Amino acid sequence: MLVAAAVCPCPPLLVPEVAAGAAGELAAARTACSDALAVLAASRPDRLVVVGPAGGDAAGSYPQGSPGSFRRFGVPGTEVRLGTGEAAGGRELPAALAVAAWLLDHTTWSAAPVSGLAVDPALGTDGCLAAGRELAAGPERTALLVLGDSSACRTVKAPGYLDERAAGFDAAAARALGTADTAALAAIDADLATALQAAGRAPWQVLAGAAEVAGLDGRLLYEDAPYGVGYLVAAWS
Q1: What are the residue ranges spanned by the domains of the chain?
Q2: What is the pTM for the complete model shown?
């Protein structure tokens, strides 16, 4: 059963070593993420599942101890692992799950074992909801850390340039995440999310499936669009 969830953005710029001189620009977002993780720890979960976007061969499950790094962003010496314990071999964490691993290490997470699920952004709504229901099935007290950005089209300098639909999309996502409205999350238009480069759509709908009968309350802890990309932080408990 799902007992709590935290929703965080997933830009590698959250990691100060990656952001370098711009690290201070996302300090408030990092603080909000830490506050959301504290809600997860307070729920006393038996396990934590990190859910984030990754397509192609990177999609799928990752065990505790899976390695990751930010070398691909030109920052050597920034290795991370998913949770504590023995290092696991196999695939390297995709970027979103590596950010999650950094956030967990940054907050010295020790409340429960951690595993990861990378969701293909192309997975349809029904598939996302089903994946969430499977995560929440069973008697274990399960918490989710859900990584994903909103639209990338808020300004002319945004990665997806300016799209007039982006502000409304982001506002609706913020309302849904801030009120734990699983029906609204399930109703997000996947085609519109793809057009707006909203990588959070699939992970958010996994959350919607996991939480649809959990009766959780939500709080929006952070909402901004630095660099023209919508970043949201929420806590459900």
Answers
A1: 2-236
A2: 0.96
